[in-house]
Amino acid sequence: MRPIKKKEGTGIKRVNINVEVSLHNAFKAATAAKGVDMTTVLLEFIQNYVGKHESTTPKKSRRA
C-alpha cells in the first residue's frame, strides 16, 4: 500500500462529506444549470457562514 501524497505549502485543506445520492445529483444539476461548479458554491457558502458566525471571543493560546 502506498501512502497518500500530500501537497506541501498549498494552503488548501480537503474536506469530505457524506451526502445522499439524490441530494448530490440535485446539487450538481443545480450548479451546472447556473454555470458554476459545486466547489465554488460550497466555498462561497462556507465563507458566508464563517463571516456570519465567527466567534468574537479571543482564542485561548497554548502554553509552552
Kindly describe this structure.
With 64 residues, the protein is mainly α. It has helices spanning 21-34, 38-53. The longest helix has 16 residues, at 38-53. The radius of gyration is 17 Å and the shape is extended. The relative contact order is 0.07. The model has no long low-confidence stretch (mean pLDDT 87).
Report the end-to-end length measured between terminal Cα atoms. 37 Å
What kind of sheet is the major sheet?
Answer: none
Helix percent band:
40-55%
Gyration radius from CA atoms, angstroms = 17 Å
Q: Give the amount of beta strand, in percent.
A: under 5%
Instruction: Please identify the oligomeric state.
Output: single chain
Q: Number of helical runs?
A: 2
Q: Which term fits the overall shape? A: extended
Please report the total strand number as a whole number: 0
Helix and strand run: HH
